[in-house]
Specification:
transferase, Methyltransf_25, disordered C terminus, two-stranded antiparallel sheet, 27% helix
């Protein structure tokens, strides 16, 4: 547990060159104008032109740069220096103005040194964080008064289902971890990773919403979606670029999105006496 950050950083550093060269991320398509953002995200976040946006756990920044193309003044943060180097390279090659910073997400207020109109976190981010209370406090410290947090994530309910069909409950829902995984591949293909160990943490939907609310943010909506962005189970069928349960199979939540707003008074800093959690590493 004490080494989770170092273990995960090595794992994600190893993923960077594989991901950048993968068809899954399609960097060349992005350079040619492909939009990496999901349509429901664009609709739910709303107009971003002229607004400042911080993307936490941005990986190598395609989604960050997608918001920049829509007019946002973007800053991406990630704990992987190779990922940030790639983000800066892609931004420069595309002529997109963007700032990228290497830091752990819990250190974001100090590393970024400013507040934002929007804090955005994309799919597959929360599972890498052991302490959502501290994470939500970090987000609150980054928001301007009246600013908003937006999350688009995989629904935790999908993690209780069997991997073969997605039709049977075979795993515990209340099972926070840490879960240590040894897996030779990343999700983009068959190239073997140099560092194959990762540490992940499961968070129930109630835990996520409660952490956001406890940080002083007002939840505006929580939407559950019956589709996901990849074939999570072999039985899922593609439908307009997303994946759903087939035919007459029961519809289940596969993703969720949440938006919450900061009040008019600035929130306390994440490391202030008002913060209820200490260091995690």
């Amino acid at each position: 547990m004490n080494d989770y950050l170092q273990v995960n950083r090595a794992n994600w550093n190893a993923r960077v060159p594989i991901h950048v060269g993968s068809a899954f991320y399609d960097v060349e398509g992005f350079k040619a104008g492909r939009d990496p953002l999901r349509p429901f995200e664009i609709d739910e976040v709303g107009e971003v032109a002229g607004r400042t946006l911080a993307h936490l756990q941005c990986h190598f920044g395609l989604d960050t740069l997608g918001w920049a193309r829509r007019g946002a003044e973007v800053t991406g943060l990630d704990f992987s220096e190779p990922a940030i180097e790639q983000a800066r390279r892609i931004a420069a090659e595309c002529g997109i103005p963007a700032k990228f910073v290497t830091a752990d997400v819990y250190d974001a207020p100090e590393a970024l040194g400013e507040r934002y109109d929007i804090v955005y976190t994309g799919v597959g981010a929360l599972v890498w964080l052991p302490d959502l209370t501290r994470w939500a406090e970090t987000v609150a410290a980054l928001l301007k008064p009246g600013g908003s947090l937006y999350i688009a994530e995989f629904h935790p309910f999908a993690d209780v289902l069997d991997d073969e069909t997605g039709a049977k409950v075979t795993h515990h829902y209340f099972d926070p971890g840490p879960h240590v995984w040894e897996y030779p591949y990343t999700y983009t293909g068959s190239e073997i990773l140099e560092y194959q160990t990762s540490v992940q943490f499961r968070h129930e939907l109630g835990e996520i919403v409660s952490a956001v609310a406890a940080a002083g943010l007002r939840v505006e909506f929580l939407h559950e979606h019956d589709h996901t962005v990849f074939r999570r189970f072999p039985t899922l069928t593609e439908d307009g670029g997303v994946y759903r349960m087939p035919g007459d199979a029961p519809r289940i939540p596969l993703m969720f999105s949440l938006r919450a707003s900061a009040g008019s008074a600035p929130p306390p800093a994440a490391d202030s006496p008002a913060s209820s959690s200490g260091p995690t590493a």
